Structure formats: structure tokens, C-alpha cells
Amino acid sequence: MVKLSIQDLDFKGKKVLMRVDFNVPIGKDGTVSDDTRICLSLPSIKYILKRGGSLILMSHLGRPNGKKEPKLSLKPCANHLSFLLQKEIQFEPDCIGKSVKKTCELLRPGEILLLENLRFHIGEEYPDKDPTFAKSLSELGEIYVNDAFGTAHRRHASTCTISQYFPNKSAVGFLMEQEVSFLSELLVNPSPPFYAILGGAKIGSKL
Predict the structure, then answer these.
(1) What's this model's pTM, rounded to 2 decimal places?
(2) On the CB side of 95, how many CA atoms lie within 13 Å of its CA?
(3) In principle, which of 154, 172, 194, 201 could form an S-S bond with 176, CB 3.0–4.6 Å?
(4) Considering only CA atoms, which of 174, 144, 173 is closest in space to residue 157?
(5) Greatest extent of the chain over all pairs of C-alpha atoms, in Å
(6) For 188-205, what is each residue's pLDDT tens digit?
(7) Confidence band of 175 (pLDDT split at 50, 70, 90)
(8) Quick check: 178 pLDDT over 90?
(9) Which backbone phi and psi does 205 adopt, to 5 degrees?
(10) What is the pLDDT of residues 106-128, one digit of tens each?
């Protein structure tokens, strides 16, 4: 199956709904303590803005299990992204609903809106329990871009179900494209001898 790249779509004057991975550690002072994942999303963000699109970013943070938890709000990520880009980042205290939809409608080219934690809704992790969640998200944008490689393996509403609402208008971002390219080379044509090391913050779950 041919996958569209972020470079295959025209973003001028379009509202772009982009899944990013802002699942970053938040320190006791309420600020982002490691912005690696946010920084990795910047090339795709800048590319879309430069080409005249407006951005609606969505992500999860932690495991609130379908309940709203203030300590898992994405507001610190909005503040940090604003610092990195040196521009205002609008923030919505929810990710679906009339207020969110209205804010998205008013978004102008070059502007960015970050939605609240997707996992505050049970429909994100369990699309079958709330089939309307993915559809509600899809109504916020005209184009869908997935640049959240860290969550691409999950069959969640914002990473899997939502794409059906964007036929020929969904693409992978630069980070996703790069990671898939690296993995494809490893899995399809590895040069022996070779070995793999799996690590990271979640090494326990990998083991």
C-alpha cells in the first residue's frame, strides 16, 4: 500500500490535524523536563506552517484511563512549544466538543492549536467503546498527518481509526517517514552479522 508523505499534500489554506507524540516527562514545577519528543516534531510543524497551513496538534500524555487528570494536562507542552517556536500556541482544555470545533474553525494560516490530552476520553484507547470519538476528531481538520511514531503501533482512535475519514488526504510526517525508513532497512535487508538492542525509558515493558 502506497503511503502519502507530508510532501505529497498541498497545505495552503488548509486546517491540518496532526497527531504528535508529546508524551514527555513533566517535572514537579509543572514544566517539561525532557523536550526530545517535542523537538522531533518541529520539522513537520514548521513545514506545514511554511506552506500556508494552520495546525491542530493532538497527543496523549500518560495513562489517565479515560478520566481528566489535571497533572496530565498538555498545557505545559503548549507553553514549551511556544518557547521553542517563539510564537503563540493556542490551547484548548478539551479535544472534542462545540468549543473546540469553533476554535478550529477560526484558526488562520500560520496559527497553531494544541488540544488537551486525548486519553482523557475513553474512546481514544478503546475506539469500540466510543466510535464517535474518532469522527469528532476528524471534523476538526481537512487533512490528517501522523507524525507520532512512538504510538503508531497502537490501534487507537487518533492513530488508526481516524485515517478512514481522510481518503487521499492523510500522510505521514517527517519523523514517521524517517523511522519507518530506518526500520525497513533493518528488517528487510540487514547485513549479517547483526544484533539489536532495545532500550529507552520503558525497557521494563519491552523485557
Answers:
(1) 0.87
(2) 34
(3) 172
(4) 144
(5) 56
(6) 667 778 777 666 666 666
(7) confident
(8) no
(9) -70, -30
(10) 999 999 999 999 999 999 999 99
Q: Residue 159's closest CA among 14, 20, 64, 43?
A: 20
Q: Residues 64-92: what's their mean pLDDT? A: 97
Burial of 75 (0-12, 13-18, 19+ CB in 10 A): middle
- Summarize pLDDT for 1-39 with one digit per residue, the tens: 447 889 999 999 999 999 999 999 999 999 999 999 999
All residues at 6 or more sequence positions from 23 whose CB lies less than 8 Å from its CB, including other chains: 37, 59, 60, 61, 62, 150, 151
2 Cβ contact list (under 8 Å, min separation 6): none
55: Cβ contacts below 8 Å, ≥ 6 apart: 16, 18, 45, 48, 49, 111, 112, 113
Angle at alpha carbon of residue 104, lines to 98 and 107, rounded to 5°: 145
CA distance linking residue 89 with residue 79, whole number of Å: 7
Please tell me the distance from the alpha carbon of residue 112 to that of residue 121, in angstroms, as a whole number: 22
C-alpha cell at 145: 498527518
DSSP string across 142-167: SEEEE--GGGTTS--TTTTGGGGGST
R_g over Cα of the chain: 17
Backbone φ and ψ of 32, nearest 5°: -70, 125
Which residue in the block uniquely carries the three cell numbers 512549544? 81
